[in-house]
């Protein structure tokens, strides 16, 4: 019995190795487009954020007003699939007699156990692929270890200091008389399964007399984020689907040469999708094919109120991403500065 178990284990490990080698031999040039930034590029669309782009974006700061655009990172928020979070506080030096020195110094620190794609977070270039083919035709089977990726990690990204453009699709649907909301939303929202089109995005830009330019980051307000804000009470409803951009809208955004697309939803794209045979196809279009980041679970209600009051949809987009080697994504803090 022990020999059979050993042989079974060897066969299992061997099959994994053979599978990885087989995937590593995929001809990704037939599956994924080449990067417009060169054959060795691992950075993606943040290549578009040049010093000139950042300087131009700085002109958006007129009053110094800071708008929070990320949700608090805490246990209990909605999570996709089997993702989890757990916070553990270490405060042992607060126990009697455990302090340090004559000054009785004490300290506390945290352990945060979590996947990287939780809360308001950024999808990196290594998050989504076709088969084992990822951004810039990289056959990822050759570049993964038990711990991380050896290509396409977050350490390759450049600055996100650019212009943000806010599109309020709720107002677009209200103005067109086609808003079908969800009873669980406390404020107007598009219901799950609502496909946001390129025409919807263009109508939203027209409402604020805004034109996209290369290097922008687009943030879409659907109202669905109100369910996130009600955590944990509405977690099941929030995760049950969502309004989002469809393939035509994604194609149009790619043509505008944006850097990232974010929304107040857990996938940015419409769920259920337009084609039941395709899985998260907009992720493939933006990330895998175009090097454009997706930012999920963005808090948009505060900026929506600001834009409604001023009719100005642009702002300086402030988001720092850690140079986390080999990671596929990370939770982020975003501020829109006006």
Question: Topology, pairings included?
Answer:
Blueprint: H1 2-24, H2 51-58, E1 66-68, E2 85-90, E3 109-114, E4 121-123, E5 133-134, E6 138-139, E7 162-168, H3 169-176, E8 195-196, H4 198-207, E9 217-221, H5 225-229, H6 235-239, E10 244-245, H7 247-255, E11 260-263, H8 281-288, E12 293-296, H9 301-310, E13 314-319, E14 329-331, E15 334-337
Parallel strand pairs: 7-9, 8-10, 9-11, 11-12
Antiparallel strand pairs: 1-15, 2-3, 4-12, 4-14, 5-6, 7-13, 13-15
Helix pairs in contact: 3-4, 4-7, 7-8
Pfam families: Cyclase
Protein name: Cyclase family protein
InterPro entries: KFase/CYL, KFase_sf
CATH architecture of the largest domain: 3-Layer(bba) Sandwich
Which structural class should the secondary elements be placed in? alpha/beta
CATH superfamily descriptor of the largest domain: Putative cyclase
Q: What is the CATH T-level topology of the largest domain?
A: Glucose Oxidase, domain 1
Helix amount: 25-40%
Protein name: Cyclase family protein
Pfam families: Cyclase
InterPro entries: KFase/CYL, KFase_sf
Signal peptide: 1-24
Structure description:
- This protein has about 350 residues and is α/β, with parallel strands linked by helices.
- It has 2 domains: about 270 residues, Glucose Oxidase, domain 1, CATH 3.50.30; about 30 residues, no CATH class.
- Helix content is about 25%, strand content about 15%.
- It is built from 9 helices and 15 strands.
- Strand 5 and strand 6 form a beta hairpin.
- The longest helix is centred in the N-terminal third of the chain and has 23 residues.
- The N terminus is likely disordered.
- Keywords: Signal.
- It comes from Vineibacter terrae.
- One of its GO terms (molecular function) is arylformamidase activity.
